[in-house]
Write a structure and sequence with these properties.
This protein is an alpha+beta fold. It contains seven helices and nine strands, in the order H-E-H-E-E-H-H-E-E-E-H-E-H-H-E-E.
Length: 189
């Protein structure tokens, strides 16, 4: 078993190191993002300014230029607040087939999910379903590719009493080949 994830900051540090498997390409801060030659400011990729604080502000669907401008405008914040931001590439939201949170309960999987193709916070506000046990297993097996499902089970085994937040797409996407699911968060409940 792995060390429990007790804070969002601890999670983000470990997420950036790839501990939780397939994820969105991520940069620790704006300077790392700006100096990354793979980021083309005029390109078509979109980015997500994320927060290391639970429930903190987050900004979706930003071009590289918009993201840098937004951070420049945030400079009026306390420096402690600015350092809480990190950046991930936006996933192909329009190709979402399933997203939500899963943990293990006494009957197997407990799954809170949606099939709405929007960023997860927005999607779960629009549509939210709950399944457990065999029904949850069927929902997951019907959407996650074998690699993603195997990794989800590994995460649930290695991090007992944790919730795994994920998004599954109709295409492979993320930092690892042959995965159709990214794992956004692992947190102790």
């Amino acid at each position: 078993m792995k060390e429990p994830v007790l804070t969002k900051a601890d999670f983000v540090r470990r997420y950036e190191l790839g501990e939780f498997g397939n994820h969105s390409p991520t940069w620790k801060n704006v300077l790392q993002f700006i100096y990354d030659s793979s980021v083309n400011p005029k390109g078509r990729r979109l980015f997500h300014l994320r927060n290391r604080i639970v429930g903190g502000p987050t900004y979706y669907n930003l071009t590289a230029d918009e993201l840098v401008a937004l951070v420049a405008n945030l400079r009026g914040l306390d420096p402690e607040d600015v350092k809480n931001f990190y950046i991930s590439e936006m996933c192909p939201t329009e190709k979402t087939v399933l997203q939500g949170e899963v943990c293990l309960g006494c009957w197997g999987y407990n799954l809170t999910y949606t099939r709405v193709a929007k960023p997860m916070r927005d999607a779960l506000c629009e549509e939210c379903w709950f399944a457990k046990g065999l029904v949850a297993k069927q929902v997951l097996e019907g959407s996650l590719c074998p690699n993603s499902l195997n990794w989800l089970n590994y995460l649930l085994e290695e991090y007992p009493d944790h919730v795994v937040e994920f998004s599954t797409f109709s295409v492979d996407w993320g930092t690892l080949p042959s995965f159709n699911t990214v794992f956004w968060e692992v947190r102790k409940y």
